[in-house]
Amino acid sequence: MHRVHRPLALLILGAALAGCGEAPVPEGCGPEASAAKKTAMNGTPMPECAGPQAQACLADSGRKHYFCSTADLLEWQKGLGDNEGEIVTFTRDLSDVDWNPRDTGDWVTMDTAWFVVGHERDNGQDQTPPVGFSDLGDAEIFASKHGGRITGRQGLPAPGD
């Protein structure tokens, strides 16, 4: 009988579980830097949008839509019909990005992000939209400074709430 050492077994288990929970992004639907000339909801150029920007990609066509905030994306998505097919959504990862300089930063799929909702940080458009983070610790730091609670995608408020 072969014995597997506990550290080795844990390493193998960790490697097997790595990446679980995040579906692969369809080809052509990866996030892009915030360079859109205008956003889908209000026509604002992305470089003028502070805070938690968002993107959506219609997987069937590869067509992309850009939003000044996660709240705008959620509102847009609410108005879509059921025949749009798979929609891949991203939020700007504010784990390592400063809010004000509008750094294009990194992006994280909204299905895997941690969000701070109910905070007091305005994005310059009279909104306090959900703020996305890839790192739970960064979400906790943001919430300790600006209030709010931490949730995953399923806990995001419905548009208008």
UniProtKB/TrEMBL annotation:
Gene3D superfamilies in alphabetical order: 3.30.70.2050, 3.30.70.2060
Protein name: Nitrous oxide reductase accessory protein NosL
Stretch forming the signal peptide: 1-18
Alphabetical keyword list: Signal
Record bears the keyword Signal: yes
Matches recorded under SUPFAM superfamilies: NosL/MerB-like
InterPro entries: N2O_reductase_NosL
Organism: Halovibrio salipaludis
Record has Signal as a keyword: yes
Entry superkingdom: Bacteria
Pfam families in alphabetical order: NosL
